[in-house]
Amino acid sequence: MSLIELMVAMVIGLLISGAVLQVFLSNRNTFLMQNASGHIQENGRFALQYLAAEIRPAGVGMGVRLPEESICVVASNGATSEWSAMNRPVWAQRVTAGGALGAVGTDQLSLFVNDNCGAFLTAGEILKPASNANIKVTRYCPSMAQNRAVMVMDLEKAVIIRVSNKPNSTGNGAVTLTHAAGNNDKAAACGGFKFSDIAFTDPARVVGFSSKIFYVADTGRKDASGQPTRALFARDVSTIPAQTMEVVAGVESMRTRYGVASANSVGVQSYLTPAEVEASKRWGDVRTVKIDLLLVSDIRAPGAEAQDVVFDGQAVAADGRLRQIFSTVVALRNRID
C-alpha cells in the first residue's frame, strides 16, 4: 500500500467517523431533550390533576359561615396564624416579601372544606376549658382522628379544639372527644366571647375540616445542573402540628386567577388576580380557579438556551434548562357565597 493510498484511507475513515460522531451527538441531544420534556410533562400533568382534585370540593359542607372574629382558636400548638382565612372556602395572595410561605412572586392558595359528616354535640354537653374535658358527639367522622382540629359551632360562634384522644370509630353509640387542658388556651378571647365562658345553643355541630395551603418554594436541593430546585408544597394546617408535604418538584412558579360572577349569577364575568378579589371583597363570588404553573427541567437541554418563555406577561430568563407552562381552569362544585 502506497503512502497516498494510506492517506486516502485515513481521510475516508475520518469522514465516516465524523459522520458517526455527528449522528451520535444528534441522537444524544434528542434523547436529552425528550427526557427533559417527558419529565416536565409528567410532573406538570400530575401537579394540575392534584390541584384540581383539591380545588373542586372547596366549600363543601360549609353550611352557615360565621364572621372570622366569631371563630375562637383555642387549640394550642396549632397553626393559629395560618387559620386567619379558614372561614373562606377559597383564598389566595401573591407573595411579595421574603419570609412568607412561598417564594417571592408566586401565589399562595388556601382551601377550606368541611367534612359534611353531620355530627352534633349530644344534649347538655359543654366545653370545659380548664380541665381535661371529654365531650360526647352523636357520631364518629373520619376527620375526628387524634391530633386533628375540629370546630364546635352553633349559629353565633365557633371554637376550634384539638382532639387529643383516639375516638371510638366503630360508630356504636355516642363518641367521646377529649381536648386536654394542656392543648387549650383557656384565656382565648374571640370577638365578644371568651372560651372560659363558652356555652352553645342546641343544636351545636361538631365539624372536622381540611384546611390546606398550596405554595411554591425552594426545596434546599440543587438539580443536576447545579441550580436550586423549587417544588409545589401542600401544608395541612388542620393537623396539629401542621404537616407540610412536597407534592412535585420542578415547579418554578404558580400564578392564579379567579373567575367571579355577579350576585345571583352562575356564569363567570371576569377573571381577577388575588389582590383584585381581595380589594373588592369578592371571594364569595368565585366560581372557577385558573391555575398557571411554570415547570423547569432538572437538567440542561440542548436548544433550551434560546428558549423564549413568557409567564404571566413576564419574560423568563433562559438558563439552559427546558421550561413549559401548564394551565387549567377548575370549576367549583358548590356556590361558596
Automatic annotation (TrEMBL):
It comes from the Bacteria. The chain crosses the membrane at residues 6-25. It holds the Pfam family PilW. InterPro entries: PilW. Keywords: Membrane, Transmembrane, Transmembrane helix. This is PilW family protein. It comes from Pseudomonas lalucatii.
